[in-house]
């Protein structure tokens, strides 16, 4: 069983930065592709970023391009979402997700494993 645990959320002022972490203790993400999604109150869960480890290919939603970066440690035990120049509209619960297919996707239903979510609040 793959257990994903997010951390790093919190309250930050607009223009500030946060780094979210997603880990599967005792496991590696090497065989999985990973994505980040977010869900604001009253809205659908939306794609944020994804990565294919093997090819090093990354994907970003238009709303976060140039501001957010998805990455991992060398052992592929932790995936990060570095969020810079945060805006109030970035406020949401952020979820990491993994797919055993190993192929990154922007589609929520493609992911088999999900974390519990971490709250990000960006004040004006």
Query: How far is it from the N-terminal to the C-terminal residue, by CA?
Result: 40 Å
Write the element-wise H/E pattern from the N-terminal end onward: EEEEEEEEEEE
The proportion of residues in beta strands is over 45%
Cα Rg: 13 Å
- Number of DSSP strand runs: 11
Total of helices? 0
Provide mean pLDDT, rounded.
92
What structural category do the secondary elements indicate? mainly beta
Shape: globular
Helix content: under 10%
| Main beta-sheet annotation | 7 strands, mixed
**Low-confidence parts lasting 5 or more residues at pLDDT below 50?**
none
Folded structure, characterized:
The protein has strands at 5-7, 10-13, 18-23, 33-39, 46-52, 57-60, 68-72, 78-83, 92-99, 113-114, 118-123. The protein has 124 residues and is mainly β. The strands form 2 sheets. Strands 2, 4, 5, 6, 9, 10 and 11 form a 7-stranded mixed beta sheet that branches. The protein has a 4-stranded antiparallel beta sheet with strand order 1-3-8-7, with no helix packed on it. It is globular, with a radius of gyration of 13 Å. The termini are far apart.
